[in-house]
Structures are given as C-alpha cells and as structure tokens.
Design goal:
By secondary structure, this protein is an alpha+beta fold. About 15% of the residues lie in helices and about 30% in strands. A hairpin with a 2-residue loop joins strand 5 and strand 6. It catalyses: 7-aminomethyl-7-carbaguanine + 2 NADP(+) = 7-cyano-7-carbaguanine + 2 NADPH + 3 H(+).
Length: about 150
C-alpha cells in the first residue's frame, strides 16, 4: 500500500478513469471519527454544451482501515476538469468510487452545483446510515443566493 503520489511529482490525470487514488492506513482505527474534504472550486464539463460547470463539493467519511491520501484525492478531483458528465454522474460517481475502494464505515458527498440558467442543482449521496456515535456536522454550504 505504498502511495504513488505522496512525496512525488505528479501530473494531473487526463480523466477520472486514469486517476489513481492512494490509501494509507488509518492512524486511529479504534476510534469513530469524521474526515471532511471540501473542494469549493470543482469543475467538470457539461456533456451537452461542453461548457464548464462549477461545484462546491463536501466529502465526509468515517474511516475504517484506511484513509484516502489528500494529494491523490486532489488529483482525482482535478481530473474532472475535462470530463463531460452531468452533475448527478460526477457527484455520485465520486462517492461510489471512494466508498468502493477505501471501504470506510460510512461516506457521504454533497455536490452544490453553481447555477446555469438560474437554477442550482444540488446532488447528495451517502453509503447508508451514519454510525451511531459519529458527530455529523452540517456541511456548511450556504443556501443558494448567488452561492458565493
């Protein structure tokens, strides 16, 4: 389980499929705790028009045996820059991949997409019910009002 990106020079993957996510051992496997990653400047492309779409992503998870290495996660998320997919596909796909590969106790993702045509689209996915003793703060993204 040697990380491919940590401490190495890495280039932005050409696509999410080519991106390699690194996982390292959880330093506190006996504890129930929450890890949050916030990506306020996520971008992908509209599959119909090719125009850029922007989102504020919030990824929360309760680790099990591994945690995702943050540099590899940044590269993975950056690989969507030239990826054409609907908001729902991007948001749910990110959550599903992290859950499938990392196997956390629990994971949720909130995709707060900036409006196109005056309407924001927010997409939420979670792996199931949160563990009973997990402190679960609000995701902290303001309701739409120019969202910025």
């Amino acid at each position: 389980m040697t990380p491919m990106h940590l401490g190495q020079t890495s280039t932005l993957p050409a696509s999410p499929e080519e991106a390699v996510l690194d996982y390292v051992p959880n330093p506190r496997p006996a504890q129930i705790y929450l890890v949050r990653f916030t990506q306020p400047e996520f971008t992908s492309l509209c599959p119909v028009t090719g125009q850029p779409d922007f989102a504020h992503l919030v990824i929360d998870y309760a680790p099990a045996e591994t945690i995702v290495e943050s540099k590899s996660l940044k590269l993975f998320l950056g690989s969507f820059r030239n990826h054409a997919a609907f908001h729902e596909d991007c948001t749910v796909g990110i959550g599903e991949r992290l859950f499938r590969e990392m196997r956390p106790q629990w994971l949720r993702i909130g995709g707060y997409w900036y409006p196109r045509g005056g309407m924001p689209i927010d997409v939420f996915w979670q792996s199931g019910a949160a563990p009973a003793d997990l402190w679960l703060p609000e995701q902290g993204v303001a309701p739409y009002r120019g969202r910025g």
